[in-house]
Write a structure and sequence with these properties.
The complex is a heterodimer. In chain A, 52% of the residues lie in helices and 10% in strands. Chain A is mainly alpha-helical. Chain A has two domains: 1-52, no CATH class; 54-211, no CATH class. In chain B, the strands form three sheets. Chain B has a three-stranded antiparallel β-sheet with strand order 6-5-7. In chain B, helix 1 packs antiparallel against helix 6, helix 2 packs antiparallel against helix 3 and helix 3 packs across helix 4. The two termini of chain B are 20 Å apart. Classes of the chains: A mainly alpha, B alpha+beta.
Chain lengths: 216, 202
C-alpha cells in the first residue's frame, strides 16, 4: 500500500483534487510541508503533504484547553437571583438540578454534552498525540475512527453556553428575577473553542505514517 | 494519464484507483474506512432549493422573538440578537461574541456563501472569486451551530417552567424547521461536483 505522499502526490484539503507535490522527496515525518507556496490548480488552496506543524499546534491548543478545563468546571457559569435569593450554578450543579427535578433525559443530555464530551475529547487527542510521538502501530483504523468522533462531537459542548445566553436574555425582571453570566462560562466557552481548534490542527494521516514505519 | 483516476484518502493518505462513483453512491477507503467520494443525485439543484428555503426560515428565526417569559404579569421576549446584546451589556463580551458568531453570523455566512456560489453555477456562470468563497464556506461550516442552539433552548425552557410560564414564539418554529432543512441542504451538497463544474467551465 502506498501513501500519496510517498508518490509525491497530495489530496487538496479544500477540493479533494489529487495534486503533484513539487520539490518533495516523498519523505514522511513531522511537519511535512515541503511544497512551499504550491497551490492547488483547481481551487487555489495551499498544498501540504501533511498539515504544517500539526503536532506542535495540536499540543498548543490542547494544553491551553486543559488549563481552562478546571476553572470551567469549578467556577460558576451563571448566577440566578430570584426574589432576593442569589444562587450560583456550576456546570455540574446545573446537571444535578435537572436530575433532582425529575428531568433525567435532559440531565443526561447536558451531562454528556458539557462534562463527558469535553473530557473525552481531551483524553482522545492526548492519546492520539502520544501514540503518534511514540510511533505506535497499534490499531490505526480504530485510532482514525476515534479522531473522526472527536471532530464530530465537539460542537455539542456549546449547549451550556447557549443555555446561559437564553436565560440571561429572558430572565431580566429587575428585583423579581435576573440571571447573570459568570466567569466559568468564559472558561467553558474557551474549552469548547480550543478543543475544536486542537482537533482541526491534528492530522490523522500521521497515525498511518508511523504505522507504515516510514518515519525515522 | 491512467484510465482509472487515482485518489488519496483524506484520513490516511492511501492512494487508490477509484472508478467513477455512480450518483447516490459512496466510496470508502479500503484501509481506514474514510469517505473517499460521496456523489449525490442532483446535488446542486437540491442543495440550492433547500438553501433557499433555509434562508427564508433564517430570516423569520432572527426577526421574531423565539421565547417569551412571563412572571407575575411581567413579560420579557427575546430574539437571538437581544440575547447576544444582553450578554455584551453584562460585561461578558467574550461569550457574546462566541454566541453571536456561532448562532447568527456563521449560519448567515454559510447560507449566503451557498447561495452566492450555487446560484450562478446552476445558471452556468462562475461568480466572482468563486474558489475563495467556496473554500471559505468549508472553513465556516464547523462553527455554524444552530442545531446545538435549539437543544440549548430546550434545556433553558425546562429550567424556566418551574419559575414562570414560557411561551414559544414564531421564531422557535422557524428555527426547528430551519435545522431540518439546512441539514438536508448540507447532506445533498457534493462539493466535488461543484469543483468539477468549475474545472469544465475554464
Amino acid at each position: 500500500m502506498t501513501s500519496a505522499l510517498a508518490a509525491e502526490l497530495t489530496r487538496c484539503h479544500a477540493c479533494a483534487l489529487l495534486c503533484r507535490l513539487p520539490g518533495n522527496g516523498g519523505r514522511g515525518g513531522d511537519g511535512e510541508h515541503a511544497a512551499h507556496g504550491a497551490l492547488c490548480p483547481r481551487c487555489g488552496a495551499p498544498l501540504h503533504g501533511r498539515k504544517p506543524q500539526s503536532l506542535e499546534r495540536t499540543w498548543a491548543w490542547l494544553i491551553a484547553a486543559l488549563l481552562c478545563y478546571l476553572p470551567a468546571n469549578l467556577l460558576p457559569i451563571m448566577k440566578v437571583t430570584s426574589l432576593g435569593r442569589a444562587q450560583a450554578d456550576t456546570i455540574m450543579s446545573g446537571v444535578v438540578y435537572l436530575l433532582l427535578h425529575g428531568m433525567w433525559p435532559l440531565a443526561l443530555v447536558v451531562f454528556v454534552a458539557s462534562v463527558f464530551v469535553p473530557l473525552l475529547k481531551l483524553a482522545i487527542l492526548f492519546g492520539l498525540l502520544v501514540s503518534v510521538h511514540r510511533g505506535s502501530r497499534w490499531r490505526p483504523v480504530d485510532r482514525t475512527r476515534l479522531y473522526r468522533i472527536t471532530e464530530a462531537i465537539g460542537r455539542w459542548s456549546m449547549v451550556d453556553i447557549f443555555v446561559v445566553t437564553i436565560l440571561v436574555a429572558l430572565v431580566r425582571l429587575g428585583n423579581l428575577a435576573t440571571v447573570e453570566a459568570q466567569p466559568g462560562a468564559v472558561f467553558f466557552g474557551a474549552v469548547v473553542v480550543l478543543t475544536m481548534l486542537a482537533a482541526e490542527s491534528f492530522d490523522p494521516r500521521l497515525i498511518w505514517d508511523r504505522s507504515e514505519g516510514r518515519a525515522a | 494519464m491512467p484510465a482509472v483516476p487515482l485518489v488519496a484518502c483524506h484520513d490516511c493518505d492511501l492512494l487508490t484507483r477509484l472508478p467513477e462513483v455512480p450518483e447516490g453512491a459512496t466510496a470508502y477507503c479500503a484501509r481506514c474506512g474514510g469517505v473517499l467520494r460521496r456523489r449525490r443525485r442532483d446535488s446542486i439543484e437540491r442543495t440550492l432549493a433547500l438553501t433557499l428555503a433555509a434562508s427564508m426560515l433564517f430570516a423569520v428565526a432572527n426577526v421574531f422573538p423565539f421565547l417569551s417569559f412571563e412572571m407575575r404579569g411581567r413579560v420579557t421576549e427575546t430574539t437571538l440578537a437581544t440575547g447576544v446584546f444582553d450578554l455584551w451589556e453584562q460585561g461578558v463580551p467574550a461569550i457574546a461574541v462566541l454566541v453571536g458568531f456561532t448562532a447568527v453570523l456563521a449560519p448567515l455566512a454559510q447560507l449566503s456563501l451557498l447561495l452566492y456560489v450555487l446560484l450562478p453555477v446552476r445558471l452556468g456562470r462562475v461568480p466572482w472569486q468563486m474558489p475563495r468563497m467556496f473554500r471559505l464556506l468549508r472553513r465556516i461550516q464547523p462553527w455554524s451551530m444552530m442545531e446545538v442552539f435549539l437543544v440549548g433552548i430546550l434545556v433553558a425552557v425546562t429550567k424556566l417552567v418551574d419559575m414562570a410560564s414560557v411561551v414559544p414564539g414564531l421564531a422557535l418554529w422557524a428555527f426547528a424547521g430551519l435545522i431540518v432543512v439546512l441539514a438536508g441542504a448540507l447532506a445533498s451538497l457534493d462539493p466535488e461536483a461543484v469543483w468539477e463544474r468549475l474545472e469544465v467551465r475554464r
